[in-house]
Amino acid sequence: MTTAAPAAPDTRAPARPLFVGIALAIVYVVWGSTYLGIRIMVEDMPPFLSAGSRFLTAGLLLATVLAVRTGVRRLAVTGPELLGCGLIGLLLPVLGQGMVTFAESGGAPSGITALLIAVVPLWVILYRSLSGERPRGPTVIGVLAGFTGLAVLIVSNGMDGSFPLWTMGVVVFATVSWSFGSWFQPRLRLPGDPFVVAVYEMLIGGGLLMVLGLVSGEQVDLSAFSTRSWVAWVYLVIFGSGVAFSAYVWLLQSAPISLVATYAYVNPLVAVFLGWLVLAEPVTPPIILGGAVVVLAVAVVVSSERPRRTPRRTAGSTA
Questions:
Q1: 54, 93, 237, 317: which has the fewest C-beta neighbours closer than 10 Å?
Q2: Tell me: the pLDDT tens digits for 51-66?
């Protein structure tokens, strides 16, 4: 999540629609496909160690790119900034993505996982309400509808037992952590450069996941990992944590936030389709109903949270 403070009038030429469309397509498809990538990766690889090595590698690659392009000094941070990055690294990569990886290793289908994670914007609205903000009426309706869809997904799974119910609980916990980290991040002292934040967030989060994997008894046997799992791991490192993130950061600076935020309800659709196409994951009527309610609720919330028109002398956005 990034926040732009009031600034002088923007004199930059608007981004070409073609470039915006390409960047949006990358975020839509690549981030939507990461749930499938995780599901394939953990077929052979231990969840915490594979997730930790993924984030460590991605963080090192991004740090190297930044250092080569603009110098090592770009990576300099203060103690409080490093502490803030560490907290976000715990909430997002470890308790967020790490728990999602653990749940998928336990049998959670990638499509349903993505649908559950789609409620993250709804949790963020709830945190904002608890902190004293007053969301608009349509936002409240969207939040209530979204959690209704979430309940449908949980209850329907408990009834048909298509996969272990505990995995769904882990994914819900991951959404609570991820959304809290997203809401809390602007309140922390962090480096001004979002790419530098991402470097330390991934390095610290990846390191914590590696420790968690070792403490929990996970072992690494490289010869036991299939080519399929290795391909998924490399894909997650390069595309999931590199290309898509860069496209997302560029979009935040180049396109309306209401347009960028549409990834929240497009990603689950991509994930469900890919899970069905590649892994033959079932798409039952309760999943369709609950998923549709969640996606529509997020769409309502995103639309109702669009910034109101303000004088051109100020500009702000959040994601």
A1: 317
A2: 999 999 999 999 999 9
